[in-house]
Amino acid sequence: MCGLAGMLLPAPVMEQAVLEQLARRMGDALIHRGPDDSGVWADASGGVALAHRRLSILDLSPLGHQPMASNDGRYVLAYNGEVYNFAALRADLEALGHTFRGHSDTEVLLAAFVAWGLDATLQRANGMFAIALWDRAEQCLWLARDRVGKKPLYYGWAGEALVFGSELKALWQHPHFDNDIDRDALTLLLKLDYIPAPHCIHARCFKLMPGRVLRLDAATVAAGADAHRPDQQQVPFWNARERMQQALAQPFVGSDAEAESQLDGVLRDAVALRMVADVPVGVFLSGGTDSSVVAALMQAQSSTPIHSFSIGFEGSHHDEAPLAKALAQHLGTDHTELYVSGADALAVVPQLPAMFDEPFADASQVPTALVAKLARGSVTVALSGDGGDELFFGYGRYQRALRNWAMLGRVPAPLRRWMAAHSTTQGEASRTGGLAALLAETGARGIGDVYRNRISRWRDPAAAVKGAAGAGSFYDLADPLHGAGSPADAMMLADFNTYLPDDLLCKVDRTSMAVSLEARAPLLDWRVAEFAWSLPLSMKHRDGVSKYLLKRVLGRYVPQDMVHRPKRGFGAPVSEWLKGDLRGWADELLDPARLAAEGVFNVEAVVPLWQQFQQGERKWHTHLWNVLMFQAWQAHWRHVRAGVERG
Questions:
Q1: I want to staple 26 with a disulfide (CB 3.0 to 4.6 A). Which of 5, 261, 326, 345 is the partner?
Q2: Which residues are CB-contacts of 356 (< 8 A; sequence separation ≥ 6)?
Q3: What's the CA gap between 323 and 411, in Å, rounded?
Q4: Would you say the pTM of this structure is higher than 0.90?
Q5: The predicted structure's pLDDT at residue 316
């Protein structure tokens, strides 16, 4: 795992030494992502520079140093991530006559680009990655991101230069980065708890979407951000919607036992590939189905006890640590657990703006940061169970949305139209909870509309942000599968495309990389995803049991009483925090005079929610946490930029 950064100029107007110095400064902002080594490469004649920070996982020797050039000199690569099937790719390349100096996957990738080209290589690669590849022959920069969006990649304009990096803090180091807040993107934060790709909190900046490739050259840079169309110029080499449609068109037709055996086989291989490393490897173990499957398959393929990690919360009614401990004892793992207090959790909150450096409001970021720090004390790589809910119908909200969709289908169309017309209310504070939510769904065109209502925080975020018109996301599609599949498939696809990469995987990436820990997710192997999409819903949810087939696989390794456990999630008591130790912090950030002076939020939209919450009238903590995370981030961002300008 590593960090990358760099820039591309519209014309070769910067001296080599200046290019290198600026790129190094951008790269050094990512030292937490790569504390083991650093490198810079620049070409003044091409107006390009690449920077890299290395966390050594494969080939710990200097032969894995980046940026790395291909043997023929055509390509220069700065790369973040792991290609798990690099050994198989290397064997194929050696058969074609390629030779290798070391045994890093970076060197294999470069040889593959030479032999097969960029697109064909990405099609063959099984892994997580963000790539910046300079092509000397074509004088162009390629940016690419893995299929599901495990690794992040930001890009945008700083003055006339195009800058890019694993995190925004690298882009901030450019002296001409004066990009203000994208207020339409901010409305997405209020609605979803995060900002989905390709949107970014900064104007003139973007996130590369999962499974996409972007070609940039001097002419593209010179055209500027106003001419950039990310939905058109970010070209997919793997498209989740198309792959799901193909899987649905050729569904799995075998028995439960055959499906169980096939899923077990592909999962075992996915886990085995992700256990390959030249450093210690462990697993996050919550006691839930997904992490339990990963831990069981790791231990089944290891000759020694694997490292497992869990945290517990003192005094919590939703503590999964005892479940994780019991499962670890059954599997025989080398288990480490840590019980944390409320004070331990609250100590993380001030670190969040610097950890994420784009406002992010999923409060489970706090316990995730704690378990990442715990694991880093013993290992450099940790496997997680991310992806099981999105692939195997694990969320309770799926069932609730389907019930509402079925109920609405029984309401006559004229009555639905009348109810929809009369369900609009003025402002968040006037809404009446569940009744308003159900009424809002009466105008739904499809399951996508119903589900978006289920997962939205602020229903009218544009009313809270000054000068905002709002922005859309994949959730705005009423029928994301264009008539294919079922409503259940549509909801899982929407989460796979949006919630998974931009919330869950973002959360794990930032919290793990903050402590220089690499996190790997075997359930998100593309082969697992495509097999899951081919399964009928009855193999994912049956007789009230969610993740039915995944639990059958788990039942091969642990007793049934460890298989069928209620889903508890990995949350944080935000409401209690805001009523207790964080009240003063929130008061300061939500002070009406401060909000008015900053000019981002409409005071009359935000302050009443804080007042009602304090008085115990309404449970506005999720709405308020979104605003507070932005406010804290904004203060951090302005502080960092002031330092850059002084420096």
A1: 5
A2: 365, 506, 510, 633
A3: 44
A4: yes
A5: 62
